[in-house]
Specification:
The chain is an all-alpha fold. About 70% of the residues lie in helices and about 0% in strands. It has 5 helices and 2 strands.
Length: about 170
């Protein structure tokens, strides 16, 4: 089943999810760096990556939701997609909770202790599960995969450039 939201014949949602996954996961790394070193810069970097990750996740959710609406009702894919969506929104919520707790810290958002970071760390664990479900949608259930996909398919860019002309080998 092809994605409904595409750029250059590729699904937009999987292109966008790399950013929030990377940003939110590395925010936890920066938290550990802060806790290990006490250097406030790591706390500031962590908070900034959480903000960017949340914004990126919400941007990725839009084409993901449009694609989910196109999945036939009553299918396993629709059910897995719903779990994936709810878990991703939970991830965003947990990181927002962590961010709010940091901002409410009397000592400053950049010196939050582990307790104020915990929601984000739980969010990372939930994100791993949700990412696996996203892989299940694509790799097992064929969601966002072109109907003509195969190991020897021509480049999607070549198909676009030569649209309407038959493919010939030189």
């Amino acid at each position: 089943m092809k994605s409904r939201v595409q750029v250059a014949r590729h699904a937009l949602h999987p292109m966008l999810v790399a950013f929030p996954i990377g940003l939110l996961a590395t925010s936890v790394v920066w938290d550990v760096c802060y806790l290990a070193s006490g250097n406030r810069s790591w706390g500031m970097i962590s908070a900034a990556t959480i903000v960017a990750g949340v914004v990126g996740a919400l941007a990725a959710a839009i084409p993901g939701f449009v694609d989910w609406l196109a999945i036939p009702r009553g299918t396993r894919a629709r059910r897995i997609g719903a779990y994936h969506m709810v878990l991703n929104l939970t991830v965003v919520g947990l990181f927002v909770v962590s961010l709010v707790q940091r901002w409410m810290n009397p000592g400053g958002y950049d010196v939050a202790g582990a307790g104020r970071m915990l929601a984000g760390w739980i969010g990372l664990a939930v994100m791993v599960v949700s990412s696996w479900l996203g892989g299940e949608l694509v790799e097992t259930l064929g969601i966002s995969v072109s109907d003509s996909a195969n190991a020897d398919a021509p480049s999607s860019l070549r198909q676009r450039r030569h649209a309407g002309r038959p493919h010939t080998r030189a």
